[in-house]
């Protein structure tokens, strides 16, 4: 009880003291307050506009990242990695189920890369030197198109008019010979979507028409790689001497696991092959939704509209 009385008395004393203070004295004391006695932090003020801007930036970054991932799927680097992964599946199957390969070569990464490189050379789509396919690597047709476009632009800049006293008609044009467009040679069109789709459809038709007879789908790319590795002392005695047959067996088994109709009627073989390849392209993000029945001449990441949209969102081209 005494404690309550003491608190009440102190409260009254404080109130009386405050009521007797001169307002001018209070203002003077506030102005002369030392800096170190003032609050260290000021409250942060946020507005609805700031929150809205943050949301827009976040949405833009999300959309940019999503588009970047979609466009990466059609780049050579991504398709190369996927092809290597498929070969690794074949080689792991060959070693685990049939002992066709030396297990000391596991995880077969270098062998798989050598096979993909040799296969892409045979198809005419390899233009990446002796190393791996880097992220910024470009398809052969892309390089050719860029060179031709640059050559045409240079030709236009270096074209000028000359006139002489003998001229009776329009001014003559002089063009430097070294600016002529570079012709599309060396099968550069093989890397275009429609060419790659046709190649895969052809391979799918072979698998569908084999009817389980591996001799109809022998893969001599494996043999070429074996011969190169033998010359380098890398193909050991524990590896098969008939990789064109034995690895084709493993490849066929892997293929059977993903198809729903392995042996269609001969009359529907073309349609089934087309549907299988298209479904695979759609699954892995290679099929452009702007295409109708056949792929176009450039991949989605090469579309000027997609490049412009990506740059607008803040991503790289």
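Sequence proposed for the structure above (317 residues):
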């Amino acid at each position: 009880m005494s404690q309550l009385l003491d608190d009440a008395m102190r409260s009254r004393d404080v109130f009386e003291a405050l009521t007797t203070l001169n307002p001018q004295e209070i203002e003077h004391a506030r102005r002369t307050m030392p800096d170190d006695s003032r609050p260290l932090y000021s409250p942060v003020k946020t507005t609805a506009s700031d929150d809205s801007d943050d949301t827009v930036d976040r949405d833009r970054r999300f959309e940019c990242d999503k588009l970047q991932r979609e466009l990466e799927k059609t780049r050579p680097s991504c398709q190369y990695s996927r092809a290597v992964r498929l070969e690794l599946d074949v080689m792991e199957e060959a070693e685990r189920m049939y002992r066709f390969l030396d297990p000391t070569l596991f995880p077969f990464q270098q062998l798989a890369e050598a096979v993909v490189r040799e296969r892409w050379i045979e198809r005419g789509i390899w233009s990446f030197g002796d190393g791996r396919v880097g992220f910024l690597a470009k398809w052969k047709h892309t390089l050719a198109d860029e060179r031709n476009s640059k050559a045409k632009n240079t030709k236009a800049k270096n074209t000028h008019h000359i006139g002489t006293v003998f001229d009776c008609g329009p001014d003559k044009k002089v063009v430097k010979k070294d600016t002529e467009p570079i012709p599309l040679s060396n099968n550069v069109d093989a890397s275009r979507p429609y060419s790659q789709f046709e190649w895969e459809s052809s391979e799918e038709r072979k698998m569908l028409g084999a009817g389980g007879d591996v001799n109809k789908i022998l893969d001599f790319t494996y043999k070429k790689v074996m011969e190169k590795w033998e010359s380098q002392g890398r193909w050991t005695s524990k590896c098969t001497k008939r990789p064109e047959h034995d690895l084709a067996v493993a490849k066929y088994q892997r293929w059977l696991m993903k198809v729903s109709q392995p042996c269609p009627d001969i009359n529907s073989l073309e349609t089934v092959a087309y549907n299988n390849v298209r479904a695979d392209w759609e699954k892995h993000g290679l099929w452009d939704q702007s295409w109708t029945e056949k792929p176009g001449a450039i991949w989605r990441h090469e579309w000027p509209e997609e490049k412009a949209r990506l740059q607008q969102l803040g991503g790289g081209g």
